[in-house]
Amino acid sequence: MKKNEEYIVTCIDENRMGSGIVKIENQVVFVPDLLKDEVCKIKIVKVKKNYAFGIILDLIQPSNYRIKPLCPYKTCGGCQYMNVDYVYQIEMKSRQMKELFHRNVKEEIQVLHTIESINPLYYRNKAQFPVQVKDGQILMGFYRKHSNDIVSCNECKIQSKEINNIYQWLQSHISIQQAKELRHIFIRASKNESQVVFIGRDDSKFQKLSNQLMDTFPKVTSILFNFNNRKDNVILGEEYKILSGRDFIIEECMGNKIQLHFKSFFQVNPIQMEILYQKAIELANLKKDERCIDLYSGTGTIALAISKYVKHVTGVEIVKEAVDNANKNKELNHITNCDFICQDATEFAHEHKNDNIDVLFVDPPRKGMTKQGIEDIVTLKPNRIVYISCNPDSLCRDLNVFDQNGYECQIIQPVDMFCYTTGIENIALLVKK
Ligand code: SAH
To answer: Which residues catalyse the reaction (predicted)?
Structure first.
């Protein structure tokens, strides 16, 4: 097989990155956007030692699950499944999760069907739009796939309508002078409140715009300027200034009020978040006399939600603003059996060896946990561990380490938090062997 050759092929499967898999002369070729059973003319664009990449030239026989893309922007690279029927997205994710965990962890794990979203569009509550000025024009929107070019969009189908409205207003009200000072604009929208953070070098030209924004959008309660002079591509800087309102918004989660600082993590799909936590609580089978730990606790959403089912919960989180939020949230909701500690999760586990707790919740960032971290965590000797993960690959790796350290994964529940994209959240229930 050589570059630029053309073939007529039938797709045999999809991978988890949104590509179809075809076989030519017994070699695997990945073709972006191709679905199982589709017949297609492809061109080979890259040949590696054990596999190759192709692109679709002509779709001869489309899948029944292919739909007209809901979004006109093909180039932003955000949604891999904009042209795939939602029911089939769920089927694909379910099939892929079963295969992944059975093949890479254990055949015996019960991998449940993916829980779909009743609201698969306009769900995201957070956006970070890059801003640039090029040839006297303001560019703001999303990065093009694998690049730093900005694709300007009028609307994003997976962002909340409030975020789309604020974004459109900003597009038509920001001046070139203002745009030159900016690197990104961060917008977060809760059920009743929204927050806008201008991220850049100099805040001096933003007060009037901020006042106007506040007057135009009644839900906006927090507008900030975050100073970022960094040379790397980290989006947020340390220092910030309040332009209007306050530095947090209030969200609701499982009946609790959640104060949310802009530096604190929060799940991006608020509807599915509650379904995720409800499922996690069910799987944990909590009892009133049990002591729990919530590692990587963020603003305390999980700890506060489980507090009513157990005796005591300790939340551990490394971002100070998130721990401040969690403590405030405990107060706001009149909860007395939770404590929050600002510490590295692994360090905490190391210091609390042999504490004998009953149930452990872990919800780490994408990279998952370290081997040492897991070895320390098992010394807390929980009976059950509920591991919530947004990255199936790091979850697989970590489940194997847990297994070597006496904890067996019994059930995995995938939840579709990232509809129209390849992303998937999983809850894993582990029990002491
Ligand atoms: N459970 C929360 C947050 C999950 S996101 C929720 O669902 O809202 C993961 C969290 O881990 C983030 O809040 C992040 O700040 C925190 N974190 C990252 N590294 C950490 C570490 N080494 N120790 C403790 N917390 C950490």
So the answer is: 390
Pairing outcome for strands 137-143 and 150-152: antiparallel
297 lines ligand 1 (CB under 6 A): yes
Q: How far is the CA of 345 from the centre of ligand 1 (A)?
A: 9
- Best residue for ligand 1 mutational test, from 125, 275, 296 (most atoms within 8 Å of Cβ): 296
Tokens for 234, please give them.
Answer: 């980290």
* Domain encompassing residue 365: 88-119+269-432
Number of structural domains found in the chain: 3
Cβ burial, residue 233 (10 Å; 0-12/13-18/19+):
exposed
**This prediction's pTM:** 0.96
SS3 87: helix
Binding site, annotated residues for S-adenosyl-L-methionine: 267, 296, 317, 363
For residues 222 and 247, the answer to whether their CB atoms sit within 8 Å is yes
Q: What are the tens digits of pLDDT across the range 108-155?
A: 999 999 999 999 999 999 999 999 999 999 999 888 887 888 888 889
What are residue 395's phi and psi, to 5 degrees? -65, -45
Going by pLDDT thresholds of 50, 70 and 90, the confidence category of residue 194 is very high
User: Do the beta carbons of residue 260 and residue 250 sit within 8 Å?
Assistant: yes
Q: Are residues 311 and 396 in the same domain?
A: yes
- Is 81 inside any structural domain? no
What span, in angstroms and rounded, lies between the C-alpha atoms of 3 and 5? 6
Catalytic-residue membership of 338? no
Sheet of 407-415: strand order equals: 110-111, 407-415, 425-432, 384-389, 359-362, 291-295, 312-317, 338-342
Cross-strand pairs, 407? 432
